[in-house]
Amino acid sequence: MDGGRSHDYDPAQTWEDEMNYQRFFEEAIDQLHAERRYRVFADLERIVGRFPRALWRANGRAQEITIWCSNDYLGMGQNEDVIAAFQTNQIDYSVFSTDMAEQIRAQSGAVAPLIQQFGALKTIEHRGQQSGADMFRVVFEKQATDWVIAFDDQDQIAALLFRPAQD
Q: Mind listing the pLDDT tens digit for each residue in 140-157?
């Protein structure tokens, strides 16, 4: 047939054995570095009540810095009136999608006391995105919490979840 070579075929040995994925991805990342397109996110922790000050963590050290640009350029994420509105159940429902506002209204009697028992707000740290939602670590005086917030196409809050911090 083919000179007797057909019996040499081993289905366990495929072309993938010849592909060095580790080297392939290392070279791709090296190329991004060379083009100065490799993005590294700074580890920042906002200091509540001291906008625009934050802690920058790198190489096992923390240094206080000033952030001059941010998605929170008005500092509303640390605005005492906004935080107080949640703790006193005076929530501005217009920032939520219609469905989400209805759900929060239905649970507001339980949510406000729960948040109140956490004590004073200490820090809010954006921890990135997961499945299109923003992840935050919100530390209160008595409790660290993780928050997941997702927005709809009209930039209204469409999903909101908070729970005790996982680590």
A: 888 888 888 888 888 788
